[in-house]
Amino acid sequence: MSDFDAEAMIDAMAPFLGLTVEDDYRAGIVQHLNAAWIIAQTVLALELKDDAEPAPVYRP
Amino acid sequence: MMVFDSAAAIARAVKSRTRTARAEVVDCLARIAALNPTLNAFTAVTEERALRRADALDAAMAAGRDPGPLAGVPFGVKNLFDIEGLPTLAGSKINRDLPPAHADATLIARLEEAGAILVGALNMGEYAYDFTGENAHEGPSRNPHAPDHMSGGSSGGSGTALAAGMVPLALGSDTNGSIRVPSSFCGLFGLKPTYGRLSRANSFPFVSSLDHLGPFARNVEDLALSYDAMQGPDAADPACTPDGIEPVGWLLGRGVDGLRIARAGGYFARGADPAAFAAVDVVAGALGADRSVDVPLAAEARGAAYLITMAEGASLHLDRLKTRHGDFDPDVRDRLLAGAMIPGAWVAKAQKIRRLFRARMLALFQEVDILLAPATPCRAPRIGQKTMLLDGREMAVRPNLGVFTQPISFIGLPVVSVPIWTKGEALPIGVQVIAPPWREDLALRVAGELERRGVVMAPVARPQ
Questions:
Q1: CB-based contacts of B307: which residues, under 8 Å, 6+ apart?
Q2: pLDDT tens, B253-289?
Q3: Number of domains composing chain B
Q4: Which of A20, A32, A46 has its CB closest to that of B325?
């Protein structure tokens, strides 16, 4: 883990998004933010070329 | 209706006038009434509508009209499908306040045009953000093979209804694994078609760039029959292919000769209970598939699908999170609130990885025709279980049951989940038979061959 602080993120983001976070929601949100952070490291570590395109109109 | 009857057998009996559609529906409704109080598969039973339709079908046949290939076959749908006259719950309490749907979902209409008869709406994880089959508002849909265990989600009621023999056919949705996980846990055949193959019109969405709809059945013929009846363009779903129908039913007998079948290695060969890999061994052994191929970027693909799901799911529900946050299932609410905080830069990168992974997989499909992979990392956990031990690591149950399904649906590949039973084990586990885009026929041919050889099967659960 990094020094990423999920509690601080919730405190900053919830008012920014206009969301209410009751006390009993916090533990769950922290858990999911930490899980997302861990999973995101694999995604962020992959090097993409500058011309990599998304698939906005998706056709398999 | 005998509880073990297949959809095909029911249709044959009705078409030959051996049984009436009404008799089939009456038997089906009685079975639901007997079992649903303990197993909790159905959230609404459309009894009046079903009997009315059965009578109309019987009258049409008496007048000499063809009732269709699914004549008199009762079916249920996950309660995110619109049913005319009912609010579309999508597993939520909040949606109970919606006005009744003004029309049926396209796929319901197509099955009924083919002679099938809707008997009700099925329990599901709230807003489809679930792999467990649990639901805070309705209670869990239970696994008929071991009722203290999960049915799998989010199409949990679909799995329960099929495995209990309440219906011979059910529809579900699959964004990250929600058809394949219940198929694995409940021991069923499930088809997640190619992204864009079947219309999603008039169903409640979750992550529109990843949402698929598809059928569950207890045999491959029924899966193909229903799939063929539901194909076709639909301008009401922008993702639905405008291309023509490609029926598969007539191809099922072709077997697997000439198909290049390989096990998915690397990412798909670690991080699970040995039972998951043993099930793949059984299928690979039966098919003579001794080759294993590494699937490039699978972990990155799973991560990208995970992040897109969090962000798109939160975007869909953002206003409800502001105004109705106390009415969500707490497990779903907390995950959606976290999803609202995912950075846009992560999601944009995840979408680029989707395209890259698609290119790598299309290259891989130049070498192989079918990939085999576990459907779930374990057999069904107990209801309420929060963590599980996989490969020596304690993992959260809810987000990780889809670890093997998520990369595959991410790029919309067609998959049939096939059920494997091991002597001495009460619960089954599934294997994904994965085909290139638009080649549902190949996955169904392989599933059909495995079924003919007795390797895979979907028995109705014995009463517990």
A1: A36, A39, A40, A43, B342, B346, B347, B350
A2: 999 999 999 999 999 999 999 999 999 999 999 999 9
A3: 1
A4: A20
Domain boundaries, chain A: 6-44
Residue B240: strand, helix, or coil:
coil
Clarify whether B292 is annotated catalytic: no
Could you tell me if residue B462 is inside a domain? no
**CB-based contact B413 A56, cutoff 8 Å:** no
The enclosing domain of B43 has a CATH number of: 3.90.1300.10
Q: Is the ipTM of this complex over 0.90?
A: yes
- Asked if the structure places residue B106 within a domain, the reply is yes
Per-residue model confidence as pLDDT tens digits over B17-53: 999 999 999 999 999 999 999 999 999 999 999 999 9
Domain span at B92 = 7-452
Place of tokens 């004549």: B71
CB contacts under 8 A, B 199-258 vs A, are 209, 239
**Chain B contacts of A54, Cβ < 8 Å?**
348, 351-352, 354-355
pTM over 0.80: yes
Locate the chain A residue with the closest alpha carbon to B439: A60
Q: Among B89, B119, B139, B37, which Cα is nearest to B383's?
A: B139
Give how far Cα B131 sits from Cα of B124, B210, B430, Å: 10, 15, 14
